[in-house]
Amino acid sequence: MKDVMGVINLVNEPDDLEELTYHRAVASVPFGGRYRLIDFIMSNMVNSGIRNVSVIAQNRYRSLMDHIGSGRSWDLARKRNGLFFLPPAMEDLQEMMKGDLFYFHKHKDYFYRSSANYVVLSRSHMVCNIDLEQVVNFHKETKADITLVYKEDKTQIGSKCRRIQTNAEGRVTMIQDHFGRSDSDKISMEIYVLKKELLLDLVETSLAQGYDHFVRNAIMRNLSSLSVYGYAFKGYLGVINSIPSYFRHSMNLLDPEVYQQLFFQPAPILTKVKDEPPTRYTVRANVKNSLIANGCVIDGNVENCILFRGVKVHSGATLKNCIVLQNGQIMERATLQNVILDKDVRISNDTVLIGDPKAPYIAEKSKVI
């Protein structure tokens, strides 16, 4: 995998995460108690042997830069190769509306200077644990122009995802955009493998023709002339770009089999390490089937919940089917059900919040209710 570079493309990522992305990019949305969405694809690349990883950002990337830092937590703080954070090189506001091919062109020097011949291009909102070395080997064996990773799955309801069709040989015959009506169960995981030379050629050719989107223009418009093959992924996949999908896949983590498969198979998912004390449970604490990070203080009732670092549940408070992000405070006798609380939210005494499982109540960052 020394011949492979990884590119995490955050430009124009589908985003229906509402309050969760008011102040952060999709890639830095917290997930699973102590992780961010970008942790999964970064860990997949590093665990697969890719040592040259770049993140192409577009907007709201301050928290993302704070999270990934130099890449030390993923063993990417290196003198050679390592982590490259490529911010938007914008000259005017109109460039904010342009597609990812325009951003690739702005950072073409990064691609030219790399000695890698292959590129693994991906998004951040596809939560999975995948061995990308097998995908690259499949790409080389089939001698495809582009390899697209897909998952056959009927359960991705409420998510924006492209659907594809393949023929008997595994060649992709149709790619439908997020808003299409195809009934195919094959979902594109937005992971592509291709030669660097071909990627740069598609960038220059498409931009010269007035097109600036990689999948919609460079691939879908040239599907008949390019040899595009599909690689079937068999593990757990969460397409997280909407509130219903975020809530559902978070709750799925309470299933030990899903948690084990997503975070440890075939390799562990890495994240930024924070030194905090263990969670403290008082004699009044009543906790059932919950995922609780370190640094919490539990003095109330918690059932089927995911609590991030530093959450405090005071005496008499009751939480059921809730997701509480970092440093949330649930004061005495508050009752929460089917609720998502962003960072630093404070729920006052005796407050009652009841949401719908299909449309949970969301509290914006640092809000007092």
What does this protein look like?
With 369 residues, the chain is α/β, with parallel strands linked by helices. It folds into two domains: 4-264, Spore Coat Polysaccharide Biosynthesis Protein SpsA, Chain A, CATH 3.90.550.10; 280-363, Hexapeptide repeat proteins (UDP N-Acetylglucosamine Acyltransferase, domain 1, 3 Solenoid), CATH 2.160.10.10. Helices cover 21% and strands 26% of the residues. The protein is built from nine helices and 28 strands. The chain has helices at 38-47, 62-68, 100-106, 108-113, 132-142, 196-208, 214-219, 243-252, 256-264, and strands at residues 4-9, 30-31, 35-36, 52-56, 82-86, 118-122, 126-127, 146-152, 163-166, 172-176, 186-195, 228-232, 238-239, 280-281, 286-288, 291-292, 297-298, 301-303, 306-307, 312-313, 318-320, 323-324, 329-330, 335-337, 339-341, 346-347, 352-354, 361-363. It has a seven-stranded mixed sheet, with helices on both faces. The protein has a five-stranded parallel sheet with strand order 14-17-20-23-26, with no helix packed on it. 44% of the residues are buried.
The CATH architecture name of the largest domain reads: Alpha-Beta Complex
Query: What's the CATH topology name of the largest domain?
Result: Spore Coat Polysaccharide Biosynthesis Protein SpsA, Chain A
Helix fraction bin: 10-25%
Indicate the proportion of strand residues.
25-35%
Averaged pLDDT, please? Answer: 92
